[in-house]
Amino acid sequence: MAVQTGKIESINGNLIGVLFDSYVRQNEVAYAVRGEERLKAEVIRIRGNKAELQVFEDTAGLKRGDRVEFTGQLLSVQVGPGLLGMTYDGLQNPLNKLADAHGVFLKRGISLPPLDGSKSWTFEPLMVEGDTVRAGDWLGWVQEGLFEHKIMVPFHFRGAYTIHSLVQKGQYKIDDTVAVLKGEDGFDHLVTMSFDWPVKLSVEAFQERLMPEEPLVIGTRAIDTFFPVVKGGTFCIPGPFGAGKTVLQHITSRHATVDIVIVAACGERAGEVVELMQEFPELIDPRTGRSLMERTIVICNTSSMPTAAREASVYTGVALGEYYRQMGLDVLVLADSTSRWAQALREMSGKLEEIPGEEAFPAYLESRIAAFYERAGVVKLNNGETGTLSIGGTVSPAGGNFEEPVTQSTLKVVGAFHGLSKARADARRFPSIDPLESWSKYQGVVDPQRVATVRAMMKSADEIRQMMTVVGEEGVSLDDFILYLKAELLDSVYLQQNAFDDVDSYCSEERQKYVFNLLSDLLVAKSAVTAKEDARSFFNQLRQAFVDWNYLAWDSDEFRAKEAEITELLASGN
Amino acid sequence: MQKIYTKIDQVSGNVIALAADDVAYGELAIVSTAQGDALAEVIRIEGDLVFLQVYSGGAGISTRDEVRFLGYGMQVSFSENLLGRIFNGAGQPLDNGPQLTDCMIEINTPSVNPACRIIPSKMIRTGIPMIDVFNTLVMSQKLPIFSIAGEPYNELLARIAMQAEVDLIVIGGMGLKYNDYLTLKQTLEDGGALGNSIFFVHTAADPVVECLLVPDMALTVAERFAVEGKNVLVLLTDMTNFADAMKEIAITMEQVPSNRGYPGDLYSQLARRYEKAVDFEGAGSVTTLGVTTMPGDDVTHPVPDNTGYITEGQYYLRDGRIDPFGSLSRLKQLVNKDSREDHRDVMDAMIRLYAQTRETLEKRAMGFKMSDWDDKLVRFGELFEAEIMDLSVNIPLEAALDRCWSICARCFDKDEVGMRSALIDKFWPAA
Ligand SMILES: Nc1ncnc2c1ncn2[C@@H]1O[C@H](COP(=O)(O)OP(=O)(O)O)[C@@H](O)[C@H]1O
Ligand SMILES: [Mg+2]
Fold first, then answer.
1. What protein residues have CB closer than 5 angstroms to ion ligand 2?
2. ipTM of this predicted complex?
3. For the segment B98-146, what is each residue's pLDDT rounded down to a tens digit?
4. Residues of B with CB below 8 A from A10's CB?
5. At B107, which CATH number?
6. Cβ pair B246, B262 in contact under 8 A
7. Structure-derived torsion over alpha carbons of residues B34, B36, B42, B44, reported in degrees to the nearest 10
8. Are A311 and A341 in contact (CB under 8 A)?
9. pTM of the model
10. Binary contact (A58, B110; C-beta < 8 A)
């Protein structure tokens, strides 16, 4: 196919106007060419014979009349074995390889293949010649670290195919042909171990979507017990700066009970991703005994990297997530922060002089956000297996005010809301998830009856707390005061959790159930103390014991000893 | 040779437009006006019309002034000769020294590959307990001082700069009052640091476009020194003026504002500058301390708000103190685990108790009876403010930690402070 071309007519920041020669396709990828440099761009509007393109790189130095080459292809990711453990930029350039080849600074106009084409993988077939297959079916597999990486019929194959030939077990590279499929059109189609998939198209190669209900345990008590998430579900974490969004996402990426975690660092600090990139290879995942990095992919398009690639980065994340979901795996995509992507849309919309909506965000913001989270779900694959893709995104609302377009659009579509509170963060009550405002539509691992009772109690206690600010401690009854102290205890020893302590940062499902049962019994029990000062002192002692307990390894001797101490303390107080 | 254009089509605010060809986006031009030569940068190309932003402003430009394109973008001279010198936003000397033209480098440098960054690990000791204990400053951190207009933010900035052990200091002044500039300079001189400092100064009286250049000039030079192995501290004061300059220009360019008149890319623009803070493996580092004044003491104002989302924390200066609640060092956990074993627990416990003190004070203000516990909290608050928070306190971290324990012991019983028993056993002062 001949390359379609055009010439630059206008330049405004990273938006260029291009007069094209014959035809262009909306959202196709193009390159602005200046000397040796090829700057990647995407068509975002077409009017008459002028196409407008967002350039994914700095446009300094481009001139009117410079040549533009259109590729005819939508913005895509390359999928295949070798993705796990990689760190990519928003356009799937491997950052470590870029560093090896080009040094410390990100030179523009340079891209490298996402996957290693020279590596050999041991392919084992799962089908035989003559079998009928369709998009997404598993032709075979290779071992990628911990996982049987399925080699699938590419997702864009339409209809049924017959396997004409399939290679025997052996060593192959990603570009080697492993199967020849005969289509209904009578033609032969070659299948290799890798193919390209447009990031903005959701993969539909499965039988049906199922209701998400299996809990996805994160090890954070406030979430798993009170505002749980499920495999295939969605959740959002809005919060002002410094409230703990990123720490919560990092801790989630470490402990979440899924097979694969894809972290999309979108438009925020580079330093935070570096911590992840450098620590994960060293950290051992206790569930697998292998390095955490083996189950992780990092997409890193931080705030000083090209704005236009922010949108690409979150889509790259979900597209890779859907790919692994098609292998029957549980995948979690974490995006930090979706607001940066929304802002990038706003910047571009402004340059296109579109009619601005609320806070100058474009009118299509809401539908874009909805479509993004809709890509999560539980799917029943063609072969009956299930795979899940869960999505959790942080939101960075301007001024910390949740009444803004990105937060509101997100709340409409997600299944759980973990709202972070500045007041809690300021008082170092981490994680600062607001226990009264947050919600979840999912069911978690802890007895829902008990959770409901405790939540009702927290609510009453908060009313008492508010009342005390008006009438003082002496203005409330002893019973009310005790209820208030109980809620404070729950907050200090259960809701609060130290993300930087090896033990406390992760509270297993088993431990949560155990501790929560004990604690909720305590909370409903009647207290025998008769004076407020005694009550305060009793609950201080309890808190001390529980805090110490939280730092002790589950089921260790010390853990049991501390538990005995707590039981004794309780007996003395009741 | 270079083509000379003599017909300017439009002058609007600081922006001029003319028909020209073979011009690159971002290229510099010289506009020769009756007042002298002015530098201008290409900020938009639309067909054969080229729009340029004139650094010294559009005032006095005539439609028949000459425009010459230079074929390169904004540059700054980079060499050891910069040390001890003072320049304006466009890189022209403000002292009596010579104009520097050797070794020119572009100021629009690409960002560092995140894969090449390393995790910061060196604490910067300041002797200020509110920083060292509660929000430790780390080499290569980017961190602004949030402040209302009247607070001594430049003094604090200078004090930290003088304590920090760095190789050189680059100062970017934006909309700086002349007196503030002189004070800053004097402090560095008194501390013997002037010879290792470089100033890029835009004062309140200078053209607004030059203000935009200051951070890039300062950070480009700093980055280059860091690549060559130096640990550089960059002081940027006041970034709110920088943002306001962007706002002014965006509005003259008729861009759709996003929030209180600021352009939609405010976040990205600020981030591009702050993200220059870096620790290079096997070379030097750039640490950036900024000042962000908060109009109306409002942290939710777009400038502090966007800044807080970008920087690695902030020191919130209020009533002459670093406020423990609004302040945050996001990198503190990288260094406070290795300082002293009780550091983190002391830090958290003191803040939690002080938060309760504040609540108690509110209760007291409303006339409620104080319980024993309330009395303890009030006493704790007084001691904490006098012995730790006061900005005149200048003691090493370890002494500050001991002092925290002492305050706790003077106010509370052991089980009231919410710390781990093991630490209490070890550090609680004997009666
Ligand atoms: N769970 C936690 N435990 C202890 N400290 C926390 C926790 N979450 C956040 N923090 C503190 O708050 C700071 C800001 O958290 P971060 O996640 O970076 O905020 P955000 O992403 O919302 O701006 C961290 O640097 C850390 O000091
Ligand atoms: Mg964050």
1. A 245-246
2. 0.91
3. 999 889 999 988 999 999 999 999 999 999 999 999 999 999 999 999 9
4. 44-47
5. 3.40.50.12240
6. yes
7. -30
8. yes
9. 0.94
10. yes
